[in-house]
Amino acid sequence: QADGKVHDLTTGSFEAEIKRHSLVFVEFYAPWCGHCKKLIPEWDELAKVSKDVGIPIAKVDAIAEKTISQSQGVESFPTFKLFAGDPKVAKKYQGQRTSPKML
User: Phi and psi dihedrals of 5, rounded to 5?
Assistant: First the structure.
C-alpha cells in the first residue's frame, strides 16, 4: 500500500503485491551496489511523496530473490520498473534518479 514506506518484496509476496495495486514502482537492487546504496535516501523520500498519489514504492533484493530478478530481465543495478497491476506489464524507468523526477 502507498503508506509512505518502502516495501520489501520477496518471491512469496511479489506477484500478489503487484496484482493488488494498479501501479507499483519497484527498485531491483544488489546489497553490494554502490549506486543502490546512494539511492536509499531518494527511494525513501519517493515513498513519502508518492503516498499522496497512491503509488506504492517497493524494492527487491535481486541477489537474494534471483527468481524474480531473472523473470523480470534484471541485468544491472539498480533497475527500476513501474508495474501496472500485473508482473508481466511493466515499463523500465530510465530517467533521473531523484524523488521529484521519479514521481
Answer: -120, 155
Q: How far apart are CA 44 and CA 102, in angstroms?
A: 12
The sign of the dihedral angle between the CA atoms of 80, 86, 91, 97 is negative
Q: What is the pLDDT of residue 99?
A: 81
Spatial distance between the Cα atoms of 103 and 63, rounded to a whole number of angstroms: 26
Residues annotated as catalytic are 33, 36
Nearest Cα neighbor of 63 from 90, 98, 29, 89 is 29
Phi, psi (degrees; rounded to nearest 5) at 32 = -90, -5
What local confidence, expressed as pLDDT, does residue 3 receive? 95
What is the rounded (10 degree) CA torsion for 78, 75, 11, 2? 30
Report the 10 Å Cβ neighbour count for 33: 15
Distance (Å, whole) CA 8 – CA 25: 12
Q: For residue 78, what pLDDT band results from cuts at 50, 70 and 90? A: very high
